């Protein structure tokens, strides 16, 4: 796993309970039990941001808490890059580890320009328990799985899962190829709650 920024930029807020999260946790980090769910790198706006891991770009959006944000899925892991000023990838792109994906910025008023970087485990049910402490000394986090089972927990169509995990409707072909029970179903078929769907790496 690679650093998402040039090594000269320092981490100004670590993972977990930090002085800032203790002061502002109930407001900003409510969903994560008052813990900071990632790492903040202090850096000026307009600096390159790189993919720490490969994967499918599943979201390029303006997020209420992280401003311009990119989400990338690799196996069961989601890596997230927040407070960007520019996107250089699009939905459904497959990115390589170390590929430039955007530029740093300050697209929401949480203070000075910085990059917020997160790793989450999609196999964990509770949102507050999904963030993983990044370890850049390892090739892959120990939580990484090339294939895992997603359990539908609300009204979701097959095409919703294609977009959620592959960033585009092209993921339909992958999901139907991995799940024989989906082959004859229409793309907008609503999956019953509790349906188990195998999600492959690629």
Biggest pleated-sheet summary: 9 strands, antiparallel
What is the approximate shape?
A: globular
Distance between the termini: 18 Å
Specify the helix fraction band: 10-25%
What's the total number of strands? Answer: 13
Compressed to H and E, one letter per element, the order equals EHEEEEEEEEEEHHEE
User: DSSP helix count?
Assistant: 3
| Low-pLDDT segments, ≥5 res | none
Mean pLDDT over the full residue set: 89
Assess the beta-strand content as a share of residues. 25-35%
Describe this structure in words.
The mean pLDDT is 89. This protein is mainly beta and 202 residues long. Helix content is 13%, strand content 34%. The chain has 3 helices and 13 strands. The strands form 3 sheets. Strands 1, 2, 3, 4, 5, 6, 7, 8 and 9 form a 9-stranded antiparallel beta sheet that branches. The longest helix is centred in the first third of the chain and has 10 residues. A hairpin with a 3-residue loop joins strand 4 and strand 5. It is globular and about 50 Å long.
Q: Outline of this structure?
A:
This protein is mostly beta strands. About 15% of the residues lie in helices and about 35% in strands.
